[in-house]
Amino acid sequence: MHMERRRLEAARELEAGVRQARLAERFGVSRTTASRWYRALASGGVDALRRRRAKGRPSHLSPLQWEQLRREWLSGARSRGYPDNEWTTSRLATLIQSEFGVIYQLDHVRRLRKRLLQMEPVAGRVSPPAGQPEDGKGVLSLPPDVWRSETATAGNP
What we know:
By secondary structure, the protein is mostly helical.
């Protein structure tokens, strides 16, 4: 919020006729930044200098697809014909590709998997003993069954 406040103060001064070089000196920014603020103010008004959330790259999965993926996750891998209920990264990647036609690199699927783990309901979760990685074998004790970590299932699709 501090940065936004500074830009809005600068906008007031620019509107009052303060030169860009003087503004840069007063706010401790480069002349390029002062010029950028001036152009933003001129083209979009004060709102152009307000804080904006960084958008990042848009998701390939819609909110509805995310919810469907979460339901599949909670149903377990057995529901998709696997011999156990363990969602590995490669299994999750296969699911995403077959259901949504989206191909992600495994590193990204690993991040999605972590996000799904964080979405798990807290009720019923069994925490590992302090200092132990899950159950000591890299297995997370989460409902509805056991979900393995990447280390326990490396090379096991």
